[in-house]
Amino acid sequence: MACSSHKENPIKIETFPVTSPVILDTSYIKEYVADLHAVKNVEIRARVYGEIKKIHIDEGQAVKQGQLLFSIEDYSYREELSKANSNLKNAVAEAKSAELDLVNAKTLLEKNIVSSTEVARAEAKLEALNAKIEEARSLVSNASLKLSFTQIKAPFDGLIDRIPLKMGSLVNEGTLLTTISDNNEVFAYFNVSENEYLNFVTHAKQQAEKREVSLLLANSAEHPYKGKIETIEGEFDKATGNISFRARFPNPDKILKHGASGKVLLKTNLNKVMIIPQKSTFDIQDKTFVFLVDQNNEVKLQNIKTKLRLPHLFVLESGLSPKDRIVYEGLQRVREGDKIIPEPTSIDLYSANSINN
User: Which residue range forms the structural domain that includes residue 291?
Assistant: First the structure.
């Protein structure tokens, strides 16, 4: 009929899963690339000039404190010590003779045979010879010290590194002979951002165990012994904005070596934080948004701020409350202003809870 009305097709309202932010206690583990250094690592250098007479150890060998490592030709140093001892003996003999002269001069002065000038001259001579004795003793001590430097010994228990020179090589004062490392404990140095540093020191005040860390080795195996953060550098690196942490790890099995690398695993506890799924968010021009569902089931754009990314989840800083409802997934099919049929869905907390284990 001509007067019949034309019926429009009704707008189809889709069903979307919705969820709400969850408040919980959790933790997360952050990995930091670390450089490993033996707690004791010392370069062994020659302290005198000469030829390497003998090498008593081999590369990679474990040595004890005081063990002989290198011998440098000592003939010239023995000669120097012998000469210094002879000079000392001569100086002592001259001083004794001068002492007798002084006694005689004083006796003659009492008999008015010599003047007081002769006594003063004898005293001055003895004083000069005593000074000569002190100088000779200093030369003996110096020669003895140089001779001792020809026998190079281990300063502590440790492992010998590469030995670049061979027997017969000529060395000067300061020539590198080898390096010795005590690997019973190692330092792990790693860099942390300013934000992570602030989070660490805030929680560390509340939890003493917060300083405990783990170490992941280059083969992805975890070091069997826990370490502890001991020190934090005094200032941030202006170029990177990071600050350096140092952790100490026990190494009784000597697995860790000086110069190796690894990853420090730092666990941070989070108390009463609000989380939402990452897949419920999207970015527009460096800002993060969610689709907020109001009381009329209408979708609205909501800007949020996140402060931490967990596996599949975001820790919220602001923008939502636990009572709010947001579109859980299917964001590409919804637009601001759309009406939806909400289907309540729980957040998968497995990711958040598994971080605690």
Answer: 15-26+272-354
